[in-house]
Amino acid sequence: MQKRLLLDSQLLQITIQRLCQHLIENHNDFSSAVILGLQPRGVFLANRIQKVIQELEGCQVEVGYLDTTFHRDDFRRRDIPKKASETRVPFLIEGKDVILVDDVLFTGRSVRAAMDAMISFGRPKKVELLVLIDRLHTRQLPIEANYVGKQVNTLASQYVEVGLKEQNGDDSIWLMNIEAE
Amino acid sequence: MNQLIKNNLLGIKELSLEEIELIFETADNFKDVINRPIKKVPSLRDVTIANIFFENSTRTQLSFELAEKRLSADVINFSSSSSSVKKGETLLDTVNNILSMKVDMIVIRHSSPGAPHFLAKHVNSKIVNAGDGTHEHPTQALLDAYSIRERLGSIAGKKVVIVGDILHSRVALSNIFALQKLGAEVMVCGPATLLPKYISALGVKVELDIRKALNWCDAANILRIQLERQKRSYFPSLREYSLYYGVNKEMINALDKEIIILHPGPINRGVEITSSVADADNALILDQVENGVAIRMAVLYLLAGKLE
Fold this sequence. Notes:
heterodimer; A: Rossmann fold; globular; B: Rossmann fold; Rossmann fold; 5-stranded parallel sheet
């Protein structure tokens, strides 16, 4: 299997730092902003972003977890159903600026499902999207991210493998080719 | 495991431990959903479910209907008292007619044991058994076990006694299967006339003395006396039953430990259980009702995932 390294541990750290700077620029002290990480890996990123912002600005931004399983449009259309994870939104999002955080933006369908899931908790004032990897020209819905770690040109036959140390791995993000049999 | 092996939920007997655990994990998620400000998810918006009840029910039918609506399914309700069954239509014809209207799943309650199994063999749909005669009531057993697990942390190694009319109870049979699969020790307790003759062949302990039974257990599931199913007299009077087997505060206080109390409802206060026991903090009766919706959502969601 062919693969190409997109981000290693050091680059990932720099990227997250840059994304946090950008967030701080737009949201100051995060008094009216909250972060929702999308299960599973967006949650780890959201936690890291919270920690970096704490270090840089000394403010504690609220972080929730959002699981999109029950809101997906491909239920009954997948071979193997997705298993749901925990949703935890321990604060009000009504009137807040919500920053959705995910690892990879591909077709946009997860983000659509996430917005649907999010609306169950109230009506935010504004919703933004932060992704680590933006796969260009693969969107099936009119969805774009406000904050992008890295943009990559990919083929439909490729996929992005995200390794994070929270999942007992190393911090490394790869572009993989699915080999033709 | 991400999906059920079976295409129908006919009984606990046919379920594997892994399937029960999958249902519990999925129910955890749905319990969270039904405690949100907006208690709905759109998962089953393109699924139509018929609730076919050939026997009276309030709790189970409401619980199923609510579970279906919380999943955004379309729901039709059918009860035999107001239907063509009275005009002589067979079960299979009734169900096939309903399925012709493009219904995807069937929730059925019937007074004949095996009715859902019969349907599963003859129609191409997903069948959920909501109680078949004195045979099984799988979703009740799942929500009972789920409620015990929620309160006690786990079920493996716990001791559960089922008290009362075991002979006529589908709840008892499904509970025995579910609890044993989850690793609990099960005892049945009641007057000898209300215990099936060969019940110990299922690997359950049998106890005639309610005080000994309560002393032994971690959780007691108190069943209602099902007078409507009893074709002859099994005990002299309800008062006498209540005297010997009614669970009261004095019995609970005499124990040297705390036990939890379950009851599948409807309660006959003052017969099998007194109000002071039914309304105490260690009674899970209303938790059971809440968990029932989550469990039924999980079952319907997992089965719908197998629709073509």
